Amino acid sequence: MPGEVPEKARLQPVDESALHEKTLASLAPYRDQDGRIYTIWATLAHHEDALRRFLVFGNHVLGKNTLPLASRELMILRIAARAQAAYEWDQHVRIARRAGLTDDTILAAAAGDWDGLDELDRVLLAATDSLLDRQGVDDELWDRLTSHLGTEQVIDVLYTVGQYLTIATVINTLGVQVEGGLALDLPRPVDQKKDEAA
């Protein structure tokens, strides 16, 4: 799944002095501890109208999602690891830690080592992989999902995977750079490790 990721940014973040007031208002919650707009959003601010609309959907997925917070973060980290989207990985490692996840759990989910996870998280990660690989789930996985989740939650599974695959694609294509060092090293894809061992 991972493609070529540029070593440097293809688009530089927009300076906030160049942004419209309504864009700045939309971005108010999307600032780091030093008050700077996060690089991903400052980069997407090259298309302000689309950014403002995208943030409405993103706010649902990140802030109003009906899935358990820790489970949602494991899904996002799996997407980031598979896509090798370092910026997404770094941001969500930090969120996952605040949600109480250990680095061992984060790395296990990212690597596909799900034996130590509860059944719900194993189902959600299996669905994440299926959606990434086939843009759908088979009947057996559908039955597993619906035995654990209500209809709104199942829809939020689809929205979460779609949103964060979109973000991973943006990060990798535009070369959005990590702000500082990685909070936790981004694991290499399992398939690459197998190929190199062969």
Model description:
- This protein is mainly alpha-helical and about 200 residues long.
- Helices cover about 65% and strands about 0% of the residues.
- It contains 10 helices and no strands.
Features of the shown structure:
198 residues, mainly alpha, AhpD-like, 2 domains, 63% helix, 0% strand
Short characterization:
The protein is mostly helical.
Describe the secondary-structure layout.
Blueprint: H1 21-26, H2 39-44, H3 48-64, H4 69-83, H5 86-98, H6 103-111, H7 119-134, H8 139-148, H9 151-174, H10 190-197
Helix pairs in contact: 3-9, 4-5, 4-6, 4-7, 4-9, 7-8, 7-9
- The count of DSSP E runs of length 2 or more, i.e. the number of strands, is 0
Termini Cα gap: 19 Å
Under the CATH scheme, which class of the largest domain?
A: Mainly Alpha
Overall outline: globular
Average per-residue pLDDT, rounded, comes to 89
Q: Helical amount among residues, as a percent range?
A: 55-70%
Architecture per CATH nomenclature, i.e. the level-2 architecture of the largest domain: Up-down Bundle
- Overall radius of gyration: 17 Å
What structural class should be given to the helix and strand makeup?
A: mainly alpha
Beta-strand residue percentage:
under 5%
Number of DSSP helical runs: 10
Q: Mind telling me the CATH superfamily name of the largest domain?
A: AhpD-like
CATH topology-level fold name of the largest domain: AhpD-like
Order of helices and strands: HHHHHHHHHH
